[in-house]
Design the sequence.
């Protein structure tokens, strides 16, 4: 490895903040959509609705894990999209 002691007019970027902020924005929007859809459709087969039927202590833990982890939110979004597509196909 070469260590440079003198300052150089060069910027080295390891990652971009744009990609991180866009994923975070998509996650927050998905989280809001899933909470709204779960509140309006209490009988739908969402993870949020299954969490709401648990005991109080377990429910709190599962809500925290749901919000911290990214995958459950996107699973609910996929379920929401499939439910909307099914409703649309039934109307035709």
Sequence:
């Amino acid at each position: 490895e070469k260590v440079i002691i003198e300052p150089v007019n060069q910027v080295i970027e390891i990652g971009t903040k744009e990609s991180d902020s866009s994923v975070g924005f998509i996650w927050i929007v998905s989280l809001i959509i899933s909470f709204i859809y779960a509140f309006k459709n209490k009988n739908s087969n969402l993870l949020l609705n299954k969490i709401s039927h648990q005991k109080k202590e377990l429910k709190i833990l599962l809500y925290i894990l749901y919000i911290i982890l990214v995958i459950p939110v996107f699973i609910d979004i996929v379920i929401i999209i499939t439910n909307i597509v099914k409703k649309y196909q039934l109307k035709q």
User: Anything to note?
Assistant: Helices lie at 17-40, 47-52, 56-68, 71-91. The chain has a mean pLDDT of 84. The two ends are 66 Å apart (CA to CA).
